């Protein structure tokens, strides 16, 4: 997979790398100050042999040891920040992800398994969608439809649980509070305030690119472009009163 990183993300990554570099430098300076040998010409009480480590007070030793520990902490913080703020490496969430799987293979897998194509690093599902159902252009005009597919964010818009797909009902069903969405991610039942959020996608030749850093708000309640009813029993019991 190939992923692109935005200019703002590069700035944050650069800042984290600078913090890590400063931490490493501070740690190295203090460690070298502790272990370096004393050379001729340095001030201090004379010693019989030049080149032996100079004697150091306990206070000076612990001060430099504390400086080395602080530098190590900065290095650890910078490295952790760098790892956290590098969202797109390896085709991860937060940037543009170009799938290695062709659009035809994605569709074939969906047809064969009767399940959406799930890409865990990007936190999205790819679902089939007939463009003729989008009579008002709510998806096509927003760049949310390409190659007969849409990309749905896996997060429930109610309280953020990951929403699995129920093979029996052919709907998305949230296991946390029972919200339900049809195959196109449009709201059907439960406490969710709207349909599943989406990600823009583009098709170049047979290659799909999904922009996971540009999440679009899902359609409001009442949107029903597919007319799809549940095709079997629910995997999660419906919530009463919704």
Protein described:
By secondary structure, the chain is an alpha+beta fold. Helix content is 28%, strand content 17%. Strand 6 (165-166) and strand 7 (171-173) form a beta hairpin. The chain is elongated, with a radius of gyration of 28 Å. 29% of the residues are buried.
How many independent structural domains?
2
Low-confidence stretches: 1-6, 84-90
Helix/sheet category: alpha+beta
**Shape, principal axes of CA atoms:** elongated
Helix proportion: 25-40%
Separate helix tally: 3
Level-2 CATH architecture of the largest domain: 3-layer Sandwich
Q: Compute the separation of the termini in Å.
A: 41 Å
Biggest sheet, spatial arrangement of strands = 1-2-12-11
- The overall strand count is 12
CATH topology of the largest domain: Rieske Iron-sulfur Protein
Q: What integer value in Å does the Rg equal?
A: 28 Å
CATH H level, superfamily name of the largest domain: Rieske [2Fe-2S] iron-sulphur domain
Largest sheet properties: 4 strands, antiparallel
* Strand percentage: 15-25%
CATH class term of the largest domain:
Mainly Beta
Strand and helix order: EHHEHEEEEEEEEEE
The pLDDT mean sits at 82
